[in-house]
Amino acid sequence: MTTSSHILLVDEEESGQALQAALQSDGYQVEMLTDGGAAHRAVRTQDLDLLIADLLVPGTDGFELLSAARTVRPSMPVILMSGYGTVETAVQALRRGAFHYFQKPLDLEAVRSTVSEALETNVPHPSLPTRPAPRPARLAGGEVGIVGRGAWLEEALDVLRRVAPTRTTVLLTGASGTGKELFARAVHRLSGRKGPFVAVSCAALSRDLLESELFGHEKGSFTGADHRRPGRFELAHTGTLFLDEIGEVPLDLQVKLLRVLQERQFERVGGTDTLTVDVRIVAATNRDLTAAIEERQFREDLYYRLKVIEILLPPLRERPQDVEPLAEHFVQYYASVSGKPALALGPEALHVLHQYPWPGNVRELENTIERAVVLAEPWENSLTPALLPASMRGLLPPVTPAVESPATPPAAQAEEDWTARLAQVLAATDGNAVKAAQVLGVSPRLVRYHADRAGLWRRRNGKGDTPGLPLGSGTDVAKAEVVER
Fold first, then answer.
1. Residue spans per domain, the chain
2. Are strands 56-57 and 60-61 parallel, antiparallel or unpaired?
């Protein structure tokens, strides 16, 4: 890249003039057009190194210019911007091949940095597209350590991979427990930044403690400040600072936070020295920040600084395709850390997990699987509904075992036949749940669960012995207590 690079800027707003001036001060040749027809002619006829276009241009739009540029000059990077776009707009822009997408009002420093990066990666090749096709989502242990499947995750990860190497601020939105910190760590992991990943919960601290935690303090600045202490911004220098629950920051602190985002400068509490840091900001919130702005609880200018790129993480109930891979991942992980043998996720348990609405999202699913793994007996090789919380067991469908293979009953078999078969096996094994489970090919806990459900408990006599179960058919069996041997 050289500073004599030729940039075409297509924008009719004043922000475009400010961007033109900033890029010209960096030594670039910047031609600014406000008409769509002239922009298309320039793309076709001029020797350009970079195109920057607003999505709303008289006579055309940014997507049409992007398409024209990729047809005429496949190697030329294109940066799109808009003051009215959403995360879906950003995803669409990046998937169509844009090098980057910016939400207005523009962070000029971020744009200048991205322009430099785009020009450095502009290696002409007439037969190759500017960007490779989006890669599929990777499972845990892969490139980003995020488990799931489906279009929403592919799109989110595609945006994440493209934005990670830049300094652009990322805002992660979604309900609690959807995995926002995991995505924040993925941004840092893919960024290539040499500094650490530093996280702070803005909702967990009082106003004064949060200010000191973020910016540090000087000795004697308040009672108990017996030494100088660096803040999280200093600790995250050359790395990434994750501001969780950013919507809970008090209004007066939001002003100071806005300054750091704009200038990367601040003072410690009680200090006068101005410190400059190189920090990538990733913020997260489960609040509706637009509603908070209307209620005057959040600054609008800070909001637009934070949401240069916004990634929305939907609740787990809206992405049921993720339940099974997530559950299997947690089963493997907690079996490993608990020293348990390899466990499978039984089909009945999986059915329950799919039926449950998961108000606590991925975090609740993880806790549920951890509980089930911990409670699993050493001889059990799969997780069953009996290991799940009682509140979930009502979602279990009727169990209908097969005549030819009791371990895998077909759907057409009636539940009463299963009860009869279970009663017969318990009678033949003298009520021994372990032996009955071996005959049926299921876990002992599942035998006890269904015996309890069908009322097949053995009665102990007065001396405490356990006479054998009768061989009755159907559900017409003596109630008895199932014993373990």
1. 6-120, 151-314, 317-393, 400-485
2. antiparallel
Task: Work out the pLDDT band at 218, boundaries 50, 70, 90.
Answer: confident
Q: What pTM value is reported for the model?
A: 0.55
Element (H, E) at 311: strand 309-312
Percent of the chain with pLDDT over 90: 19
Q: How much is the mean pLDDT over the chain?
A: 78
Name the one residue in this structure whose structure tokens are 């094994």.
429
Higher local confidence (pLDDT), 465 or 158: 158
pLDDT at 243: 94
For residue 398, name the pLDDT band (cuts at 50, 70, 90): low
Q: Inform me whether the pLDDT recorded for 458 exceeds 60.
A: no
Residues near 267 by beta carbon (within 8 Å), at least 6 away in sequence: 215, 273, 274, 275
Q: Is 151-314 a domain of CATH 3.40.50.300? A: yes
Mode of pairing for the β-strands spanning 280-285 and 309-312:
unpaired
Of 473, 480, 472, 402, residue with least CA distance to 442: 402
Measured CA distances, 201 to 179, 265, 269, 350, 455 (Å):
14, 21, 19, 34, 50
DSSP secondary structure letters along 361-403: HHHHHHHHHHHHHHHS-TT--EE-GGGS-HHHHTTPPPP---S
* Burial of residue 472, with CB atoms counted within 10 A of its CB: 0-12 exposed, 13-18 middle, 19 or more buried: middle
Residue 108: what pLDDT?
86
Residue 385 CA, chain-centre distance (Å), reads: 27
Domain 6-120 has CATH 3.10.20.880: no
